[in-house]
C-alpha cells in the first residue's frame, strides 16, 4: 500500500496541471502496510523484482518457465498425481535473485517445509485458474526473447512505473504500424514515431527504443522523432510490448505471444500417440532408485508420488522457442 501511494503521489506530482504540492502532499497512509492479494497483480510484482537484477535474472526466468510449462503439460494431459521438486534444486539453478518464489506462488505452486524425511519442497499446481500459468508462460517467453541490452533498458523502467502507460502506448502504436503477417508488404519500410521529450529523458526509455533499432531523427522543443532502422522488426517489438504489459499492466497481458512461434498451449497440444504406454504395476510397492527420482531436465529434479506405483511414460522431446540449446529448459 505504501508503494502504491508513493507511486500515485509521484504521478500526480509530475502531471502538469496538478504539480502543486496542495494536490499531492497531503496524503498519508493510516493502518498496516497491506500487500496486494490479487494473484495476477502479484505476477507482475514478482517479475519486477526479478528484473531489478537484469544481469542475473535470466537463469531464474528459464527455470520458472520450465516449471510453468511442465505444469501446463501435466494439466493438459489430465495427470492428477501429486508432483514436487525440492526447493534447493530450484535455488541452485535460479541463482542469487529474488522474485522467483513469489512468481511461482502467484501461479499456483505450493511451498511446503521439510517434513517426514522430505526436504523443503515445491508442489506443482494441478489446475490453471484464470489461465495464470498460460499468461505467465507467454510473459516469460517474451522476456527471454529480449536481448541483454533490451533487458537492461527494461529493468530501468521498473523504477519509473509512472510512465508505464505512455511507453506501452508507444509500443502498441509501433506494433500496429508493422505490416500484418502474411501480407506482401515489406517489413523493412521505415516507421516514424513521435514521443514527448519528457518521456524520452526517462531513464531506460531511449535505451529501450535504441536497442530495438530506432534511430533518432529530430529533437524538437517538446517532441522527439524516431525512425525504425534495419535492425527493427515486429517480433522484437511484440516481445517488448508483452513484457511491458506483464510488468506494469498484468491484467491486460496476453495469454499467448501472438507471433509466428507456437505458444505454450499450442506446444502442449502436440500429438503424443507415439509415447510408450505406462507399464504395469510392479509387484512390490518399494520404489527402486530410478523410480523414486526422475530428472526432467538439467534445471530441477522432479519427484512424483505416483512413481512409487507406476513408472511414468517418457516425455516427448520439444524445443522451447527463444532459448539457446545450452539453456536449462531445452526438452522434457
Question: Averaging pLDDT over every residue, what do you get?
Answer: 77
Number of helices: 13
Large-scale geometry: globular
- Spans where pLDDT lies below 50 across 5 or more residues: 260-299, 303-332
Q: What is the tally of beta strands?
A: 8
For the record, give the distance between the C-alpha atoms at the N and C termini, rounded to a whole number: 41 Å
Helix content: 25-40%
In what range is the share of β-strand residues?
5-15%
The biggest beta sheet, please? 5 strands, antiparallel
Rg, rounded, reads: 23 Å
The side-by-side strand order for the widest beta sheet comes to 2-3-1-8-7
**Topology as H/E string?**
HHHEHHEEHHHEHHEEHHHEE
Going by helix content, strand content and strand pairing, the class is alpha+beta
Region (Disordered): 257-300
Pfam family, one: TTC28_C
Protein name: Tetratricopeptide repeat protein 28
InterPro entries: TTC28_C (IPR058900)
Key descriptive features of the protein:
332 residues, alpha+beta, 3-stranded antiparallel beta sheet, 13 helices, 40% helix, globular, disordered C terminus, Tetratricopeptide repeat protein 28
How are the secondary structure elements laid out?
Elements lengths: L1 H12 L25 H13 L6 H20 L5 E4 H8 L5 H7 L3 E3 L8 E3 L8 H13 L3 H10 L6 H14 L14 E5 H4 L4 H7 L2 E6 L3 E6 L5 H15 L15 H5 L20 H4 L1 E2 L5 E4 L28
Descriptive report:
The chain has about 325 residues and is of the alpha+beta class. The chain is built from 13 helices and 8 strands. The protein has a 5-stranded antiparallel β-sheet with strand order 2-3-1-8-7. Strands 4-6-5 form a 3-stranded antiparallel β-sheet. Helix 7 packs antiparallel against helix 10. The longest helix has 20 residues. The radius of gyration is 23 Å and the shape is globular. The two termini are about 40 Å apart. The C terminus is likely disordered.
